[in-house]
Amino acid sequence: MAQEWKVLSQSQLMLRRFKAHRLGMLGFFVLAFLYLLVIFAPFIAPTDYLVQRRDYTNCPPTKLHWRDADGRFSLRPFVYGMQRSRDPITLEVRWEEDTSRKYPVYFLVRGHSYKFLGFQCDLHLFGVDADSGGQLFLFGTDRFGRDLFARTLYGGRVTLSVGVFGILLSFLIGTAMGSISGYYGGRVDNAIQRFIELLRSFPRIPLWLALSVMLPPNWSSVKVYFGVVTILAFLDWTSLARVVRGQFLNLREKEFVEAARALGAGDRSIIFRHILPNIVSYLVVTATLSFPGMIMGESTISFLGLGIKEPMTSWGLLLRDAQSMDVMRMQPWLMIPGIFIVVSVLAFNFMGDALRDAFDPFATGA
């Protein structure tokens, strides 16, 4: 019986190689999970991320139990109440579980009201009965008694969206500057490249901070957010511009470009209809690999107090509460937003490497 061969298209080869990259697939699913978390943050968060609970300041994460103090097993998870005390010698605040009363954890419970997709709703994925007096803090609370789990979810909205909008803006700037530089060459190319070298010669963090200081202090949180996005995009387009320039220098003398020019096609038509479609794969890979830089940039600026402002929050802003060694020793749960930063940056790097291999479908092992 003759062996049958299946001819795969270029897109099928790319998808096949991407799926073969285990770390890339892991990064893809991790990012999909993180984005779903932050998109549905109001529904997932059991408490309001802005509410301050003065009786629960710096409370450690609440433990979920299936077995009570007497050893009885329960199919429904529950939490105990938390009692605060102070050491009479060291004056250190301590939190202990009050095993005298249990608070069952329910799914699809009613809680604080929020607006999602234009609709007012008060349904949450899980939580304790609002009238029972129990509290559920999966990640603990901060120094104002605000739920760190809810704040981490809402902070992810800002941090991860900064990467998306920042990449879109830097994508436009980098593609335009790189196209002009690579297509026309000469003095135009020389001027653009010298400007890129000037921007890249400055240390990145001091330049971020210098531009962040220029944001008016009376700006609202939303204006500061878009200001940070603009700053990050303005400093991050140079790498993409160099990639685009190199591709244009390679393709502008190819036969299909010369044929289009001979048929009377103008510069705009050649750039947008003949050259750019052939470098989309390089643009996608470069943009994906630029996401970690955007996330780290926003986190650094906010961590130093020059980025996102309250009441808006981000992962970098949440890390500001864990600056001292004493805080890290006594309230280590405040470092949890940093774990999300590390995981998201690694996931973007893994997925970027997978995409880079996928767009070379004829490489070994495809």
Based on secondary structure, the structural category is alpha+beta
The largest sheet is:
4 strands, antiparallel
* Strand order in space, largest sheet: 1-2-3-4
Low-confidence stretches: none
Record field, number of beta strands: 4
The portion of residues forming beta strands comes to 5-15%
Radius of gyration: 26 Å
Instruction: Note the total helix count.
Output: 13
Task: Assign a percent range to the helix content.
Answer: 40-55%
Arithmetic mean of pLDDT: 82
Distance between the termini: 26 Å
| Overall morphology | elongated
**Could you state the order of secondary-structure elements as H and E?**
HHHEEEEHHHHHHHHHH
What report would you give on this structure?
This protein has helices spanning 10-20, 22-39, 41-44, 148-184, 186-201, 204-213, 221-251, 255-262, 267-275, 280-303, 315-318, 325-330, 336-358; strands at residues 65-67, 73-86, 93-116, 119-128. The radius of gyration is 26 Å and the shape is elongated. Helix 4 (148-184) runs parallel beside helix 7 and helix 10 (280-303) runs antiparallel to helix 13 (336-358). Helix content is 55%, strand content 14%. The protein has 13 helices and 4 strands. With 366 residues, the protein is of the alpha+beta class. The model has no long low-confidence stretch (mean pLDDT 82). It has a 4-stranded antiparallel sheet.
